[in-house]
Amino acid sequence: MKVYNTTGGRIFDAANYVFLAAIGILAMLPLVYVFAGSFATDAEITRRPFFVWPEQFTTAAYDYIFATPTFLRALITTVLVTVVGTLIQLTLTVTMAYPLAKRGLTGRRLILNMVVFAMVFSGGMIPTFLLVKDLGLLNSYWALILPAAINPFSLIIIKNFFQDLPTELEESAKVDGATEIGILWRILLPLSKPVLATFALFYAVGIWNDFMSPLLYLSDNSMWTLQMYLRQVTASADLLGTGNVDPTYVPPEQGIKFAVIVVATLPILLFYPFLQKHFAKGMLIGSVKG
Amino acid sequence: MTVTQLESGEREATSSKRTPPAPRRRRSFAVHFAHYKWLYLLLLPGLAYFIVFRYGPMYGVTIAFKDFVPFLGINDSQWVGFRHFQDFFANPDFPRLLGNTLILAFLNLGVGFPLTIVLALLLNEVRLTILKRTVQTLVYLPHFLSWTIVASLSFLLFALDVGPLFTFLNGVFGTHVDFLSNPNWFRPLIVLQDVWKNTGWGTIIFLAALATVDQEQYEAAVIDGAGRFRRIWHITLPSIRSTIIVMLILAVGQVLNTGFEQIYLMTNALNRSVADVFDTYVYFVGITQGAYSYSTAVGLFKSVVGIVLIFGTNWVAKRFNQSGLF
After folding, report:
1. Which of A41, A256, A273, B200 has the fewest CB atoms within 10 Å distance of its CB?
2. What's the gap in Å between the CA of A58 and the closest CA on chain B?
3. Contact A126/B282, CB-based, under 8 Å?
4. How many CB atoms lie within 10 A of CB B278?
5. pLDDT digits (tens, 9 = 90+) for B235-275
6. CA A118 from chain center: how many Å?
7. How far is the C-alpha of A268 from the C-alpha of B178, rounded, in Å?
8. CATH top class, domain A65-284
């Protein structure tokens, strides 16, 4: 990529840069509008078609939602379920990946084949729903965590990572009398911190963004997660499938919709620098495998 | 003890497929188990998960061939053979669902796929690293937002009376379009959402392929007097041809997966005629109407066709890939 700077090339470059910058800005416009709108008055939202900066700055919408018990409950619930769920899912994945990384283990092949088959074929929505129902997990937060507890792709990538670590450390620990669990806890996990962080984020985003599981498994609307709450607040008065529209329910004002979207987006934005870096890598690994 | 460890270390170094040394195999399973008891203990929760939550529903799929009565349970419900499948194929819903699913899938593919490649090519031409990084950061972002957020943003932007598009169209043309409930606008809206959420992210694979293109070819082409477009057309595109073909064929393998959350969130009473696809139909008939066996049959039909498509297209992709390599 050296010196071929012709006039045509420079024009192409300039046009390309302008175009790509426009695409980047365009992609962000809906989010910028929502951020701006969440700090604007309802009058301004209705009057101005589109804006990226409010004329009259107000936090009324946030004051309102953070004083609303149903919103606060949904927010706190979602944070707790995400944190606890991520810990459980990551623990289950790592404890399963470690033995599977040991080549000498009897039954390892069989179990790996089981995992791969589960990637290709699943029972589907209704049998999974009936299973969750039979286990008594309907209207329980466990239903948001357990059915998708181990992602087979993550499991296999973590397994391969363990497998590729140098074995010398492990062997010397064994000579010192460490148990397998001790080795995993004191030697392998500290070495795998970046990998574990990546998959923790992967699971956390999955739980935070999940809409289908709460829709299927939580019929009690006092248990709703943030995504369910967001759906109720922004859906145009159409509560398909929920079937329990409170007759006293007053549709929220414009600013509140904007503010709830912002709150639901914020954690993703906070972690986005890490997400972008690690997920791009993960996607390439996945595509090489598949 | 140390001998086995050395051997296993050696095996790792050379080949994973070589059979383990004989002395190891001769030990009884009890000894093997005692030796590895901690590992098996660690394995247990994960294994239990796969058996219960992954293989349990696979057993539950048998209700597609039964007349499932929740009170009787899966085992004691009566077998009915392929009745639910026959009912489904005879149902007027079937051609409508198939049509809606395929139209949406091919619209998404036809619009999203070329756009992804074009965006990747344009990004690849950028030599100003900071611009490239910034644009990538911006266009990747929507991928991480939930469908609930995407749907909510759509509701705000396209809403009647208060949405920006309404205000704009009303102000400039004195007219308005009901984007959200007019069935004609359902498909464009879904495609637009998909483009916004996934086009940027989709470029990653193509950018990785583009990074491997031999730079000397470009220099040779410059000496031969080839301009930018000719270099893209004659060098860049042919270099990533096999990636394009493989990605395209893999995407075709996914056509029946329209994405439950997106479609469900955008479905309303007025656009059901074009919005209903297999995934949401299973939900509406199964969960809200309680026709468990029938909807399981619909879901099973979809996943069997899906598996056939995935394996079929994988096979084709492999053949293309090989012939592309020469």
Report:
1. A273
2. 19
3. yes
4. 24
5. 889 888 888 888 887 788 788 888 899 999 999 888 899 99
6. 21
7. 31
8. mainly alpha
Q: Are A152 and A118 in contact (CB under 8 A)?
A: yes
- Cα–Cα distance measured from residue B242 to residue B321, given in angstroms and rounded to the nearest whole number: 6
> Tokens 């910028």 correspond to what residue?
A32
Q: Of chain A residues 211-250, which have a CB less than 8 A from chain B?
A: 211-212, 215-216, 227, 230-231, 233-236, 238, 240-241, 243
Strands (E), chain B: 66-67, 78-79
User: Are A131 and B60 a contacting pair at CB < 8 A?
Assistant: yes
Q: Answer yes or no: are the C-beta atoms of A253 and A42 closer than 8 Å.
A: yes
**pLDDT digits 0-9 by tens, A26-61:** 999 999 999 999 998 888 888 888 888 999 888 888
Helix (H, G, I), strand (E, B) or coil at B37: helix
Q: Do the Cβ atoms of B24 and A150 come within 8 Å?
A: no
Q: Are residues B294 and B315 in the same domain?
A: yes
Task: Answer yes or no: pTM beyond 0.90.
Answer: no
User: Is A154 exposed, middle or buried, given 0-12, 13-18 or 19+ CB atoms closer than 10 A?
Assistant: buried
| B42 and B126 both lie in a single domain | no
Instruction: Report yes or no: A147 at the B interface, CB cutoff 8 Å.
Output: yes
Measured CA distances, B319 to A5, A75, B247, B251 (Å): 40, 50, 14, 16
Helix, strand, coil % in chain B, rounded to nearest 5: 80, 0, 20
- Determine the residue type at B24: R
Q: Is the pLDDT of residue B232 over 60?
A: yes
- What is the number of structural domains in chain B? 2
A247 is written with which tokens?
A: 């007759």
